[in-house]
Amino acid sequence: MPRTIIHECAVERLEILGPEGQLDTELMPELDDETVRALYRDMVRMRTFDDKAVKLQRQGRMGTWAQLKGQEAIQAGVALAMIESDWLIPAFREHGLMLLRGVPGHLIYAYWAGDERGASFPEGVRCLPIAVPVGSQLTHGAGIGLSLKLRGEHAAAVTFGGDGATSEGDFHEALNFAGVFGTKTVFVIQNNQWAISMPRKRQTSSPTLAQKADAYGIPGLQVDGNDVFAVYTAAVEAFERARSGGGPSLIEAVTYRLGDHTTADDATRYRTGEELEYWQRRDPIPRLRRHLEGRGLWDAEQDQALKEEAVRWVASQVDAFNAMPMADPGDIFRFMYHEVPPALAEQLEWLEREVRA
Amino acid sequence: MNAGRPLHTREPEHGLHAVAPAASPKLTIAQAVCGALASEMERDERIIVLGEDVGINGGVFRATDGLLAQFGPERVMDTPLAEGAIIGVSVGLAVTGFRPVAEIQFMGFVYPAVNQILAHAARMRNRTRGRLQVPMVIRMPYGGGIHAPESHSESYEALFVHSPGIKVVVPSNPYDAKGLLISAIRDEDPVMFLEPKRIYRAFREPVPDESYTVPIGTAAVPRTGGDVTLIAWGAMVRICLDAAAALEKDGVSVEVVDLRTLNPLDRDTLIESVVKTGRAVVVHEAPRTAGVGAEIVALINEHALLQLEAPVSRVTGFDTVMPYARLEEHYLPNRDRVVAAVRNVLEF
């Protein structure tokens, strides 16, 4: 018997607004002018929020911070595609999307400054706390997607990982599980090219990350992650598929981490200035601004006003963060279990005696 | 929240096993586990059983037998072979209002899921300062003595007892298995429920049809005595009771404490018994070094040192890999080793 091809896999890439401002008008989603301006505002606020955290860290007022700089289009585009009932299961570089989903900025600062209260989100915010162990949150995305399916909710769970996370076993287990059960999950991989010092090519010899979806029997799509219109379009497709019972999807959003891995990292040790400059020219924020200006929807005066407004808003978040009283040391014990067990109650007493002394 | 119907809770008399009505059907531990699952699933629609081979096959030990037929595939899920996903998905289910009961087929297969158990299930409540909780049960058969292949006989309860944020429960008999599992399912915290597979079907005891709970965090005293306290859990409780019966013939009065829960530990019952007898032997099949027995010895030293007539002794597994079938009897604590240890502490 001859060998026959029994399966072929094709990977689509979606780009709508190119790096030089070229626009595919056929693919351009129907967004009114104000919504496009709002996307830009969101992205500028995210960057301002991120930049401020780095400054605070340099001043010793913030712990280690994971920068999102350069990845704003993904987070703004996904946020626009989400509805109130959707869940967000972040990794640790999705501060911008968390803000847009209702997580107060001062709590995000508090978390990264080392205060557990920063992950106690207001009631009704459908967002899990940050997950530090790489890729481990992806199975929670499958689980919440299953939960939404079992309840018949018109909602989807979106979970994030980076290119490094695709090397983890949890990536495989989560996509595999989600595929088998047809969960209401959207997997977004922010492929920012670097997992600390290891380039994307060192994570996998697979030509794309999007194609991994094919092995799990779910749709996969690669988008230009610095093109907010492409991200939004891909996210709308994936969310609608999930919410309507069509199963999970994988979106590979190709972007670049313009900052260091975290404030504890120095990316000049492992990547070149040329590479950084190449990607700076593809920065999603100036790209969208040029588009807005080209359409007569934005000017320098508005831009100046937005940036000032963003700085004021971020300052208000810093103030709120600084205004948080120190947590009670006893809180170390109070939330370990539903009720504090006797041995912990005894240890709590020891600590309280020491604190009082 | 599910209000449920009023629950009949059978509290054991202080320190002793409650005795089921004689008319109750006699069940094995495996059947008692299955009965607990069925009665709780009947009562609370949020409960979902998931794991490898738990549905069509009814579990490799039949501990979930019949549940798929009774409750359907949305509540009894045969999952892919992926321990990390079984627990990770359960975390996602639990934080959104379900009460998953996940099965890990053998304790020797839990390692891929440890990241999810320790980094997420055990931490989510604390991480969110109480905003989210993970009410889930992770059931798994543990321990040796059934001549199983490699990785099927481990007793690594100390790994989890050492890890804050989870409770660890180990029944030693069918009555407790049902009552403790029901408590575990109703608990708001993640509970590791370790089932002693060696005695899954070794004996039957009356187990009431109706729902009842045995509280987590309380030890039992299945045998009272005045000369020495044997402290054990799971399959080792039977070994201790056998040793106690043998010693009785020589006039030695042995008290047996069945801890039932390893975290949180019922320190009061344990210390009370040791204060009374002045002598204690801890018996576990897990490796010796940094085993739960070491913690128990430390607690006795902290709270009953001056009442001790002899150093507390340990009869444990060795600090080795669990031997395979042909040598496992050399590894596992047995009646004779326990009897010898008791004689040593009596003669000290």
Which H/E pattern describes the elements of chain A?
EHHEHHHEHEEEHHEHEHHHHH
| CATH domain class of the largest domain in chain B | Alpha Beta
CATH homologous superfamily assignment of the largest domain in chain A: Thiamin diphosphate (ThDP)-binding fold, Pyr/PP domains
Mean pLDDT of chain B: 94
Q: Span between N and C termini of chain B?
A: 56 Å
β-strand percent of chain A reads: 5-15%
- SSE string of chain B: EHEHEHEHHEHEHEEEEHEEHEHEHH
Strand order of the largest sheet of chain A: 1-7-8-4-3-2
Please report the number of helical segments of chain B.
12
Bin the strand percentage of chain B.
Answer: 15-25%
Q: Determine the structural class of chain A based on helices, strands and strand pairing.
A: alpha/beta
What structural category characterises the helix and strand content of chain B? alpha/beta
What is the CATH-assigned architecture of the largest domain in chain A?
3-Layer(aba) Sandwich
Largest sheet of chain A: 6 strands, parallel
Summed up, the helix count of chain A is: 14
CATH topology of the largest domain in chain A: Rossmann fold
